[in-house]
Design brief:
By secondary structure, the protein is of the alpha+beta class. The chain has 2 domains: 3-70 and 191-377, Beta-lactamase (3-Layer(aba) Sandwich), CATH 3.40.710.10; 82-189, Methane Monooxygenase Hydroxylase, Chain G, domain 1. It contains 10 helices and 13 strands. The strands form 4 sheets. Strands 2-1-13-12-11-10-9 form a 7-stranded antiparallel beta sheet, with helices on both faces. Strands 3-6 form a two-stranded antiparallel sheet. α2 (65-78) packs across α6 (177-189). The N and C termini lie close together (5 Å). The relative contact order is 0.18. The mean pLDDT is 97.
């Protein structure tokens, strides 16, 4: 990759730190099996006495948890213990007998078919996040869906009986579906999600700084956001990760470092196998990883503005459907996702490339999702 363009990437991040847009950031780019950039800029947290951002700084990665949990589900699929065609209610009885809200009348109607595990993975289960207003969002809030005081099983019990926003399989809407998937994984494994992810993925890949909380010995490495968004002035509060949570969110609960997440992306780019000095670590078949990173929604309508133009959605990741028809560079088949705290990654198999950007600046997420890949592709 072009060294001048890589230096420019760092300079742009330093500019945004100097202008007060970001407290600090860590960026990592790997191309053709070599780490060509791994840089830290700015401060680990706001304040004159803050340490400088470090390469091993720990970040709340929020929805970048989803691909990891999705891979865990697909590993169960490979073992014949999970079928994507099975109704969610096969594993979680609270999802039996769901009904769909009819906006025109306010009435409820029985579903034509139940939501499946495949619907959970591709966000077509008719669920939502209750970020908006309306009767269904109010029911989510009344049921405290997503409360960190609920376990995954309690979330599923609360969410299952609530009306759906769409008939299953009819519309893509970003939602609590991956959190429900976490409850499914727990039911099959008979263990908490954190233990499952640790045993199946994190420990085999050597992702020692990744988990649902930060141990006391590592809390000095945790990145923090500005108290107020530098552009809007709105208060900024991120999840508390000092202690193990009751809610081990498959949809958004992990913390990680750039180095740790790079190992996961090396596995993905290696189509299920991570090559290490001690030998290969194989977690899934190349067919399974290809299946995960393929588009699974086709021409289905998309609700909300989360999914960028030019992208479909796979099983836990957005998938670029063409080189064009998008506002940022990228090859067809490139896949990516972000975390609401200000984190982003993409993998481009055609270019043998992946890149990670970690910061804690939720108000700048959309900007960073456009900026960062543009800067990385400029170095090819």
């Amino acid at each position: 990759m072009n060294p001048t363009a890589l230096a420019r990437l760092r300079a742009v991040l330093e500019r945004d730190v100097a202008q007060g847009l970001l407290p600090g950031a860590v960026a990592l780019v790997q191309h053709r099996g070599h780490t060509v950039l791994h840089e830290a800029v700015g401060l680990q947290r706001p304040g004159a006495d803050s340490p400088a951002m470090a390469l091993d700084t720990v970040f709340r990665i929020y929805s970048m948890t989803k691909p990891i949990a999705s891979l865990a589900a697909l590993m169960l699929m490979e073992e014949g213990r999970l079928l994507l065609a099975q109704p969610v209610s096969h594993y979680l009885p609270a999802f039996k007998g769901q009904q769909v809200y009819q906006p025109a009348t306010g009435a409820l109607a029985p579903v034509a078919r139940e939501a499946t595990v495949h619907d959970l993975l591709r966000h077509t289960a008719g669920l939502g996040y209750a970020w908006d207003t309306g009767p269904i969002a109010e029911q989510y809030r009344s049921a405290r869906v997503g409360s960190r005081r609920h376990s995954n099983q309690e979330l599923a019990t609360a969410l299952g009986p609530l009306p759906l926003l769409h008939p299953p399989g009819s519309c893509w809407e970003y939602s609590r579906a991956t959190d429900v998937l976490g409850a499914v994984i727990e039911q099959i494994e008979g263990a908490p999600l954190g233990q499952v992810l640790q045993r199946r993925i994190l420990e085999p890949l050597g992702m020692h700084d990744t988990g649902f909380s930060v141990p006391a010995a590592s809390r000095h490495r945790l990145a923090e956001p500005f108290a107020h968004d530098p552009q809007t002035g709105a208060g900024v509060t991120l999840i508390d990760v000092d202690a193990p949570p009751r809610f081990e969110s498959a949809g958004g609960g992990l913390v990680s470092t750039a180095g740790d997440y790079a190992r996961f992306l090396q596995l993905m780019l290696g189509r299920g196998t991570l090559h290490t000095s001690a030998g290969p670590v194989r977690l899934a078949s190349r067919a399974t990883v290809d299946f995960m990173a393929a588009d699974h929604i086709g021409a289905l309508p998309r609700a909300g503005g989360i999914l960028p133009e030019g992208y479909g959605f796979g099983l836990g990741v957005a998938v670029r459907t063409a080189t064009g028809n998008a506002t940022r560079p990228g090859s067809a088949g490139h896949y990516s996702w972000s975390g609401m705290g200000g984190t982003f990654f993409f993998v481009d198999p055609a270019e043998d490339l992946f890149a990670i950007l970690l910061t804690q600046a939720p108000g700048q997420l959309q900007y960073l999702c456009e900026l960062f890949p543009t800067l990385v592709y400029a170095a090819l």
